[in-house]
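Raw record, unedited: histidinol-phosphatase
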Amino acid sequence: MSLGHSSMKASHHSHSGQFCKHAAGTLEEVVRAAIDGGFKVFGLTEHVPRYRVEDLYPEEAELTPLDLINTFDNFVEEAHRLKNLYADQIILLVGLETEYITTSDLDQLEALLKRHAGRIEYVVGSVHHCNGIPIDFDQSTFEKAVASFSHSETVQVEKPIANEALVAFLNEYLDAQLQLMERIHPEVIGHFDLCRLYTPDLSLQPVWERVERNVRYAVEYGAVFELNAAAFRKGWDCAYPGRDIIKLIQALGGTFVLSDDSHGPAAVCDLTGKLSSEIAGPIHGDFNVLEASSLSFCADSNQTANLRQLFALAKPERNALLAAFGLLLVSSSVTMSIPLTFGKLIDFFSHGALPGTLPISVTPTTAGAALLALFTIGAVANAGRVILMRSASARIVARLRKATYASALRQDIEFLERSAGPGDVVSRLNADTYIVGDSLTGNLSDGVRAIVTASIGLSLMFYLSPTLTALMLAIVPPVSLGAFAYGRYLKRLSSRTQEGLGDMTKIANEALSAVRTVQAFTAAPREEARFAAKVNHVQDLAIREARAAAVFFGATGCHEGGSLVSRGQISVGDLTSLLMYTAYVGGSLSMLSSFFSSLMKGLGASERVFQLLQREPVIRKTSDTAFDVTRDYGNIEFKNVFFSYPSRPGAEILRGFSMKIAGKGDSVAIVGKSGSGKSSVQSLLFRFYDPDSGQILVSGKDIHNYSVESWRAAIGIVPQDPVLFTGTIAENIAYGHPSATMSDIEEAARHANCDFVWELPHRFHTKIGRDSLSGGQRQRIAIARALLKKPALLCLDEATSALDALSELRVNEALERILQSQETSTLIVAHRLSTISRAGRIVVLEDGRVTEEGKYQELVANPDSRFRALMASQLEAL
């Protein structure tokens, strides 16, 4: 592609001397330079605080880590101030750039991001400090760093293919980069090929494999790569990454963003101009550059789309909102008539009018009644507006929360447990949906009212006296005494609403934290119903609060009118009117500023909600065919399965894994070292993930031929750390079968050795929470819950690993009863010999492959058995 300097639209990476000691100029000067240079989108970044003394720049020698933390906090504040100040001239993004990567550094970085949650819009994931490389290093310091790393005195950098130290050094560098990406998932991969500037050849096979691994990982989770111009600043004649890595990134579907990496206003246009020329030239060729915006979430098209989606949410409430806007016009018109009316009255009475007469031939009593009626109409209209707006907001938020929650429960495990996390999803459910609803109703109403008020007020001010429009005087009406009583009532209602929100959040967090259990028991509809009930309760409370607040605002409006009537102390009516309009206009302009800020906040919140609503789960709906246990269940076979977790695409967990489980009555135990892939087998069986290649067959048919929900309904699971939901013991046991009778629940409890339940005062109606019972009791409740489903296949994942001897005995007795019943197939993942020995067949899993299988007695009797070696310590204890 050809990008001339004039078409340079965005840069995502710059620094200023105000907050970075080796840069120049203030942050505002950098912003001004970006505006003057024609940038449409510009990223303001600053380095994360450096916590180690050895990582400080020479200019920072006198500073403490606390000084640097305060400096970064000040940068965030100033960046957001400038973002708002120049919002009509440029889109400014506020980000941070990482530098050095160790486990402790990443912990501190995560804490920093949490402290500035919602204010740091993106992360540039750069790796500078690694293996002794300082930030602005040259060839000499690079060679010294390699030498130090290899503990050798000389390093033959000119012969890298034969240089094992250089290979090890670069591998360490790239491994640090992968660790950063796995933990933080930075939106931009910065300085990707930094070492390329100092190594003549990066085609070393072990190094190149890691480069490709890192690129694949970044592309997989959606990161973009920066084309960084900092090399020009350092005297090099080419940007980085190098051309070979650019080709690889492009081949793997990667996307680039332009980066001036300027360190002062003078470099802003200079560096990006050089970068544009290089992109346009033949050196790098054609590749995909995000031109209109530096990051996908700030593109104008996305913002416009989000704005359309945002207002589409209000469509079901259009009648209520139109009525509210009509009432708003009425109340605003009444409000804006007050200054003019009182101005004329002041003029009339100040000129010695006869008592009992008015210029329109009505008595003062009649005029007072008319004014009271006018104020009452305004107050009633305002009260109606508040009721309609807040009720509409409550309904919009309720619908949005239900839809968002339903979408969250349908998402794949990878997204819920790794990419987003339950906390992020709950934040979208709670805070973001409220902000969206408020921006569509309350904030929009305030914006319209501000426009109407300002327009009418300015017109009347010029009508009254253009020469006096510069006078500013605020008139603040006294607060009504009744506000105190209403305030207390509103506070109680608000507290109940917040309690309802807390209950709603608790249910959502509970289910999302236990999403494996929810999906395994196909209980998403039930969880949606529980959540919807709480949402409806919060909606009802919010509407009651709206009505109470409406009465308050209406009464305040009446009081304001009465208060203004009593202010006839200034002899010049027109001046009084003008000053009152000045106050109205000033307040309206302030409200407009607040409205714009709130609308932008609503857009940001809506984007997070829409991302979740529109996200398609990775575990796709491949079929609508229901799995029928009686008709379809038979042998289960893993056939040459390869699998790696999406968050670690280069690290294969299963490599050609093959295993069979016969029909009902068969029991198989999988054993192996930690990390060998045992639990991954069960995750694949439940379709929490899908294999990278290979098949999982049931009766010779791929499990993808059946719907996910019907397949999971045929499987029961007892996890290592079972989750109990807030409710009764009976409700927890019947979680996967809510229509079960009490006799069914009790029978399942007996089979699971839940004798302790009968000893409780309320037995199965005893209220419990997540941690109300002991580990052994929770395990037995989990077994009863799984048995009540009458599963064709029962999976036990380390069900006794964390239990004491007595609890383990009781759980194993329940397991023995299940195995003897021959009513279900059983897949056991375990470390404990007491559990493993009960299985009919044992499969040894090592490095993702089956290395041995057989019956327990056969394997124990074989001195060369891999199983015997694994269980040596436990066998010796027998």
